[in-house]
Amino acid sequence: MSQYQDQVVLITGASGGLGREAALQFGQNGAKLALSDINADALEATCAELRDAGIEVFSRVCDVTDETQVNNFVNGAYEHYGRLDAAVNNAGIDPAHNLLADIPLDDYNRTMDINVKGVFLCMKAQIPLMQAQGGGAICNISSVAGVGAAPNMSVYAASKHAVLGLTKSAAHEYGKCKIRVNAVCPFITRTPMLDQSLELVPPGQREAMEKQLGKSAALKRIAEPAEVVTAILFACDKTNSFMTGHELMVDGGMSAL
Ligand code: NAP
After folding, report:
1. Which of 21, 138, 154, 234 is the most buried (most CB within 10 A)?
2. Which class is 8-188+224-256 in CATH?
């Protein structure tokens, strides 16, 4: 039997780089999926691809900063499938890189809204459902910038530190209800988010830039989405039953130094 056979797994930001790969890996391992994204066309394309691969998908367009939309998505998925085994709160943004004093307040507000309030609202909707069914697993996506400094990305770093605060506190609040809450902290990963932050790099210099970015990892390269998603599946796996409140670094060894 596959690792996630007939389990219901919810993913936000499911048509982005990590979200789409997570949907694919959970689906290939037997999960029934509940997917959302703010981008309706990209979500539709992702769902079509997964259904073509024989994977069962429920989907809703959902902006994670909007409590009504989050509740409609999470409750809709629960009503559709009758349970919620795992939730991956993955939707997030990385605003334009700047020194702290040069960051516009609008960027701060948008980043905190999506990266922190979004995770809070999703957990707030997911936890009562998991409590009622007797347990579940939540995996929030933080970052290596959630555990250390990130020059030129201070607001992103603050938002990802906050994700760990929510994760660890909820793990202690709901451990007695058999809800495990963990966070995965990826290093720089090859997704559309990275493309966006490198959009000013001339195409001929992209490879050299990626090499440069990978230098702080022991493995001397950036991560591929599939490598990060392996850790997300591990965090949500029912057999991984004693891991909670954990920040799982998927950083190619960067933090070992
Ligand atoms: P991505 O490719 O940009 O995917 C993020 C997805 O979230 C996109 O589909 C995006 O839609 C969606 N989204 C944005 N705002 C949203 C909102 N308000 N409500 C719902 N969905 C929204 O990024 P990724 O690299 O896969 O990142 C996934 C997670 O990993 C993020 O939390 C990110 O911070 C974290 N992470 C990424 C890296 C990295 O290097 N890639 C490293 C560490 C951590 P649009 O495309 O329409 O905006």
Report:
1. 138
2. alpha beta
